[in-house]
Amino acid sequence: MNGDSFRINRFFRHIYQGTLLERIREELRAYVKRRRSAWWQQRIGQKEYLTFKLQSELKMLLYFDSRLSQEIYCGYFEWKERQFLYDFLRDGEIFVDIGANIGLFTLIASHKIGKKGQVYSFEPCSKTYHRLVKNIDLNEMSNTKCFQIALSDHTGQVEMNISLDGYDAWNSIVKPTAGNAFAVETVHAMKWDNFAHEHNLMGRVNLMKIDVEGWESHVLSGGCECFGRKDAPVLQIEFTDEASQSAGTSCQSLYRQLEGLGYSMFIYEAKSKRLIPDPIRNSYPYLNLFAAKYPEKINIKLKKRNFLS
Nearest 10 degrees: CA dihedral of 226, 232, 233, 234? Predict the structure, then answer.
C-alpha cells in the first residue's frame, strides 16, 4: 500500500470508528506545538520573558530560561488537570497549591473561585517565588496569599537543590531528576497540620495540588491530621517513579499511604466530567492522580452547571 492509499484508508477508518474529530484535534495540537517551539527557540537569550494570555481575563509571565514556561507556551501542559480545576472549583471555595512554581494552577484557581474564595500558594525557591508573586500581581489577585515555605513532615530548615540550567520545575529537596547544574538554597519548612491550624483551614480546603518532586509522602506525613479527617480536601498529587526513588520511597508506597488516610485514587475523564477509579499500577513514569474520599459526590458536583464568578 502506497502512502496516499494508507492515508485514505486511515481517514475512513477514523470515520468508521468515530475518532476523526479527535484525530484532527491531535494533529492541530501537534502542529501548534511545533510552530510555537520553533518560535520559542529563536528567542532564547534575546528576551527575559513574554506576557502570555493563559485564558480569558488571565495573563502570565513566561520566562525564556525555564523549561516549564516553554511547555506552558508550546503545548497543552497538564491540560486535563487544569480542566478538572476549572470544572471542580466554585465561587467562594479554597484551593491550596503546594509546589506552585510560577503559578499556573494558582492563577486558574484564583480566577475561578472569585473574590470570596481563597488561594494559598507555596513555592520555597526564592527566584521562582518572586516570579509567582509577579504573576499574581499582574492579574491583581487579592484573594491569593503566597508563602516561601517548603511543606514537609517537620518544621525547620531544609536545603533545596535549585536548577541553574532551566529545569526550575524539578527543583527539589532531594537530587533533582532533570538538569545538570544546581545551587543549594536553604529554605524554611513546616508541617501542613501546623499551617492549617494557624490559618484556620482544618476542614475548609476544597482542593489541594501537591507537586513536590518526590517529597509528596513527606507532605502527607506532615498533614496526617488534616488528611485523615472525613472533610479532608480532594488532592491532585503527582506520581513519578524517578522522583519518588530519588527521595528514597516509591509511588506504590505513596498510593498505600493515601489509602491508609481513607483516600481512593482516580483519573479525570474530562469529556464525561467524571472521576474514574485507577487501581495501583506496576509503574508510574509520570501521572497526576486525584485522591478523593467521596467520589460520587464529586462526580455529581462536576456534572452541575459551573459558571465563572
Answer: 120
CA separation for the pair 255, 239 (Å, rounded):
9
Query: For residue 215, which of 156, 168, 171 has the smallest C-alpha distance?
Result: 171
The pLDDT value recorded for residue 252 is: 98
Q: How far apart are CA 146 and CA 106, in angstroms?
A: 10
Instruction: Name the grid cell of 45.
Output: 537569550
Element (H, E) at 69: helix 67-74
Give the pTM: 0.91
Q: What is the pLDDT of residues 125-138, one digit of tens each?
A: 999 999 999 999 99
Q: Which residues pair with 267 in a beta bridge?
A: 276
- Cβ atoms of 109 and 146 within 8 Å: the answer is no
Quote the cell numbers at residue 16.
Answer: 468508521
Give residue 103's pLDDT.
98
219 touches 192 (CB < 8 A): yes
Q: What share of the chain is helix, strand, coil (3-state, %, to 5)?
A: 40, 25, 35
Q: 467520589: which residue's cell?
A: 295
Encode pLDDT of 153-202 as tens digits. Answer: 999 999 999 999 999 999 999 989 999 999 999 999 999 999 999 999 99
SS3 150: strand
CATH 3.40.50.150 given to domain 77-303: yes
Q: What is the pLDDT of residue 41?
A: 93
Tell whether the torsion through CA atoms of 30, 31, 34 and 39 is positive or negative.
Answer: negative
